[in-house]
Amino acid sequence: MTANPDPVTTPSPPPRPRRTVWLVVVLGFVVVFIALLASGLRPQTSTLLQGNPAPDFGLTAFNGEFDGQRFSLTDMRGQIIVLNVWASWCVECEQEMALFERAWQEYREREVWFIGVDYLDTDTAGLAYLERFGITYPNGPDIGSRIYRDYQCAGVPETFFIDRQGIVQHVQIGPMTQPQLHGVLDRLLEGGGG
Amino acid sequence: MLNAKNQQPEPKSRAENRRPSRTARYFPCRVHNSSFIILRSSFIIHFISLVSCLFLLLCFAMPAFAQQPTADDINAVASNLTCPTCTGINVAECPTETCVQWRAKIGEMLAQGYSQPEILDYFAARYGDHVLQVPPARGFFQWLWLLPTAATVLGLALLAYLVRSWSRQPAPAPLEGEDQVVEDEYLQRVEQDLEGWTE
Questions:
Q1: Complex ipTM, two decimals?
Q2: Cβ <8 Å between B182 and A4
Q3: Hey, of A2, A59, A90, A145, which one would you mutate to test binding to chain B, going by the most B CBs within 10 A of its CB?
Q4: CB contact under 8 A, B84 and A120
Q5: Are B126 and A144 within 8 A, CB to CB?
Q6: Given CB atoms, is A177 within the 8 Å cutoff of chain B?
Q7: A26: which chain B residues are within 8 Å (Cβ-Cβ)?
Q8: Do A122 and B102 lie within an 8 Å CB cutoff?
Q9: Most buried residue among A73, A156, B31, B173 by CB atoms closer than 10 A?
Q10: Residue of B97, B165, B166, B193 for testing the chain A interface, max A β-carbons within 10 Å
Q11: Does residue A152 contact residue A49 with C-beta atoms inside 8 Å?
Q12: CA dist A82 to A139, A149, B31, B127, Å?
């Protein structure tokens, strides 16, 4: 079988630069779109912070003797920080609030600071909740949910144990028990990791 | 020794017998020209103080007199906020504890005279932009507005370009001479083949 010659033999025109520009623009657009989608698929879990420097935070306390005082990681460098994210509507948080208060009283003299981050609460509800559990350590609202986002939380309660060098040594997702809390704090005070 | 009861009152002068003025009746004391000015100015001071006190009282009492917002008023604002602990439910329809608290806060702010945009701004600043049902055109959320707009503009531009390039393409020249024969032969062959198929 012989192939018929092409009935119309016209030389193909060279590719125009305008077409290339269009191609680049469209491809660039597609790449940006896929990159944005991919960023949403990135795993977000607070445990990834373990062993890494803690993100800086700023919090203005709204309770008790610390009312109006500003706390930040930068200012508290050199001290052990227990950063607890809670909410008044969180039932599981209730299990550990009294425990944290007892531990605060016990470890306060040893430069261990408990900081409560009130997530997605109204001030009225948050303060009533603190009063209910007799909490005296500094607590404050998470303005703009920044701390929650920076610490990659996925819910409440979550607790971060930050050592004197500002490294997250332990991340607790969910409520803590007394042996767990004391175990982590004692290890941190001895200078070890969580 | 004189008995007080037996003492006769001294006759009053003409000026003293005159009916006292309204100011003098208000301040029952002897009114002289100089003291009258002092009394009048003190009356004005008292009056201004009284009015100021009433004004202040009214200011402090205003929230109590302010109209309490209805559930519909609250829900009209709450429907613009997203429940932060659920997925896609607005605060007006959500039964969670968080949303109950937020509705109470909205009611409180409406009673204090805040407008809907002010309340929404407060919630966005306090809890983050993600609590708004309509994402604001700032920060990361501006991409939600920019990308679809850019995609639409790009798509339309691409379409316009393609339509324009197609319309400018010259129509194929009619085949003539030997090419026409070849074409015809080819068509004849196709026709024959087709006839063979139909039979």
A1: 0.76
A2: yes
A3: A145
A4: yes
A5: yes
A6: no
A7: 154, 158
A8: yes
A9: A156
A10: B97
A11: yes
A12: 12, 17, 78, 22
Residues in chain B: 199
- Tokens standing for residue B185: 């032969």
Model confidence pTM above 0.95:
no
Residues in chain A: 194
Query: Domain extents for chain A?
Result: 46-189
B40 inside domain: yes
Query: For chain B, how are helix, strand and coil distributed in percent, rounded to 5?
Result: 65, 0, 30
Q: Residues B84, B58: one domain?
A: no
CATH of domain A46-189: 3.40.30.10
**DSSP class of A45:** -
- Specify the number of domains making up chain B: 2
Does residue B50 lie within any of the structural domains?
A: yes
Interatomic CA distance for residues B95 and B100, integer angstroms: 7
Q: Domain range spanning residue B92?
A: 71-141
pLDDT in tens, B157-166: 989 988 988 8
What are B95-129's pLDDT values in tens digits? 999 999 999 999 999 999 999 999 999 999 999 99
Contacts of residue B134, Cβ cutoff 8 Å, sequence gap at least 6: B80
